[in-house]
Amino acid sequence: MIGPLLVSLRVLALSLPVIVILGGWIGWILARKAFPGKTLLSLLVQLPLILPPSVTGFYLLLLFGKTPFLRHLGVLFSFPALVIAASVPAIPIMAQAARAGFSSVNSEYEDAARTLGKGEARVFFSITIPLARRSLLAGLALSSARALGEFGVSLMIAGNIPGLTQTLPLYIFSRVETLNFAQAHGAALLLALAGFSSLYAVRMLEEGRGRRDASC
Known about the structure:
Elements: H1 2-32, H2 38-50, H3 53-66, H4 68-72, H5 79-104, H6 107-115, H7 120-131, H8 133-148, H9 152-157, H10 168-177, H11 181-215
Helix pairs in contact: 1-5, 1-8, 2-5, 5-8, 6-7, 8-11, 10-11
């Protein structure tokens, strides 16, 4: 189980920057920008949340298998495919949390900082991010758990290769296939603990926000 655990942790470490940057950027656009097709973009971003993982994996398989440039990269059934598989379903979670967080920021604080001569980058990192941090951290916790527990998309585009693309969820699948329920149970407990920790972190953030709002 150590090998799949290490693969899962590597996937999480590499996918998190992708999830945070892309999810946060998409969430900021949806919260702050008005443009034609915004509703369509919002729906497309949420689509991986409701599509069966096999459908998402199937279309990614076609994308990386049929597109000449992407096919020559040799992504399919390799470790990078695991990072893609973990990121795609988790980005919508981060995007929705970021959208909620950025929408909740009072623009008057940002405008006041601009009148004091602060540039847009400084306003964003010193005003916007801190004010939206609870939603962003909640999104990070939930999207991390989703990435760590990814199974269906990974199986479709990365396979289940021990030592290379076998993550903890895929390890559980292999152990159940061989009726080795004891080892499957151990790996499942690890993932359940990770999921519980993520939900607990989100709960603490929500309670902290509730106490702050009550004191205002």
